[in-house]
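Consider the following assembly input.
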Amino acid sequence: MAKTFTKPRSLSDQYTHYCPGCTHGVIHRLVAETIDELGVMERTVGIAPVGCAVLAYNYFNCDFQEAAHGRAPAMATGIKRVRPDLVVFTYQGDGDLASIGMGEIVHAANRGEKFTTIFVNNAVYGMTGGQMAPTTMPGQRTTTSPAGRDVQQVGMPIKVAELLAALQTPAFISRQTVIDPKSIRKAKQAIRRAFEYQVAGRCFSLVEVLSTCPTNWGKTPLEAVDWVRDTMLPYYPLGDLKTPED
Amino acid sequence: MQSEVKFAGFGGQGILLSAKILAHAALEAGHEVVWIPSYGPEMRGGTAYCTVVIGDRPIGSPIIKNPRHLIAMNRPSLEKFAATIRPGGVILINQSLVPIGSGRDDVDELAVPVNELAVAAGSLRAANIVALGAFVARSRILDFTLLRRCVEAEFAAKPKVLRINQDALEKGRAAAVG
Amino acid sequence: MGKILMKGNEAIGEAAIRAGCLNYFAYPITPQSEVAEYLSWRMPEVGGVFLQGESEVAVGYMLFGAAGAGERVFTTSSSPGISLMSEAISYIAAAQLPAVFVNIIRGGPGLGGILPSQGDYFQATKGGGHGDYRLLVMAPASVQETAEMVMQAFPLAEKYRNPVMILGDGLIGQMMEPVEFPDHLRTAPSNKDEWASSGMSTRGSSRRNLVKSLFLDPETLNNQNLLLKAKYDRMKREEVRYEGYNLQGDYRVLIVSYGTMSRVCRTAVDNLKAQGLEVGLLRPQTLFPFPERAIREAAGKSTCRAVISIEMSMGQMVEDVERSVRGIRSVHWYGKCGGDVPTPEEIMEVVRDLDDGGCQTPGCICDKE
């Protein structure tokens, strides 16, 4: 019998440490499929963040570097500037990219660094145990906002894709999610486009992926999917915010 | 034997450049040499100074409290540094801007209308080179022919500027040796 | 090639290129911005990479990434900037990557001042960043030596797969001296295929390389730290460098001093000798590893009555001098850290007092008993 579905070559055999219902695994797969399809695994360097995906290098089969919190875009800049022939991507969460690493991502994007960023937004600090992130929704309870995010005190959640799309330089900025087969297919298309632009020598590309965190949200996997649809999507609309054709 | 020359004036008077040309000439003559600028806020519009140390042995302290010679391109520089110069040194005063003397009788004081001579040579901007020519001719710190070569090397890329500065150098020399 | 007159800061940039480093990332800060200004045109001229980063934090990680990809890379900064880079320096040391950092020290702490200082001795030799790592620290005293040390830094960083720091001060960066770039210090980068995440196909390997510093298992992390320690111990055996001045005679006082400060001390030693007082000078050229044994042996000379560390800081290196002397002589300190470099005359007075048997320096460590 012919195999119709198999693990991408760019993913390792190792089981992930991600919680049940977490969508990191799906996003890893979409990135790995893309690397396979473009045939670039042997010249790809990934950069792992600090956060739940810190161990991403165990799940991919390409070269990897492990960044300090928020600094992946600076490392990617260093790699890509000295080795333009490599395919370089950063994989970052919302605490990493939108809080401590906001300076690095904005300037890398604005310089048009020729790498790709996969930005996983699950509205919370996952690895450290569910603290409030810059992307936490208004009223959302976290371990450091037990009464819910008070926007009078800490402002509204940062819309990273819109913020970066306001820059003139970046090539491709898109926001997607992975909560059902249809959205996963669209997310895959966006991730593939982001990598294709890089391989074609276009400048900076980023895909924000709205993700789930059932554990820290205190929800079942299904409830978490509903929460993304009902609470996050209205505030974080999906779609391509900037394309090279714009 | 070690000699130190302090170049002092306003920012924009070409202090660092004339000092650099002297340092270059000292290097060409086979001496040990250090060029030490003042840096920081002083170089942004206020007084600028720069010291060139020339010696026969590796130069120790680059910090010179009592230089041997002074080229004072403006009045504040003369007032600030005249008293620090070692007896027997040359104090060159830009007479165009400084109406006073050094008040020292144990140094070789030389007042030269540096700005006027520079204008006569073709540009006020060559005042630093007039002063350099006058100073080297008077102090004989280095061979003048060698200095000429270094001025030529500095401005080689700009023939018009070169001619002005060559003239400025000779005017300074003539003013110093009469 | 003959000698040319060059500013220390420009010589640093040129020396890196001559050594074979074609990648430079930096952020402007006085008193070393001339390095970036110089390399902003010189790197493109030789086909190299020049990038002005958005902060010293980012620059540190640009070095981390580039070094991890297996390319020679360096940066220059000054004290507050090095503080910001220190996080990355710790990561680079932990990931065992070669990189070169130049610190042209200015006065501190805080914003401090922009004039010469040696206040970052502790930062460079004892840490700066977090964790059990060390930097190989070289301290030049002239523009020529700065150029040579920059050129030597790259093969040393690669030999140990560890960051190397050149510790200068504002004067080293700002002054001009004749300099000649030695051809024999030009080195080819070592083979990095074993560890660089340079893309598997570019090194013809099917095995991937990881650049990382996270070791959650306690035994693994301890072993990792033992590995680092073994490298630092090897540096202590193989890389100690120092220069003696007037150590042949029957000196009565031994001065230990480095960098620009040591030149001032050399003038003081000459002047005191002319006045009949013999003083020895030992100048550490590496601050880590520190020339402990050389200092102990020099202090042990029978005529030597006292040892003094003279530095542009409030008594930092003196702790290592005291540790080296191990109590066989009294150890003293003299220093200033505001930007005024102590003059030969000041030093002569301090040394004469010591020879007369009495330390007159307020706050000297010998007061503490």
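The mean pLDDT of chain A is 97. Ask yourself how this observation constrains the way the partners meet.
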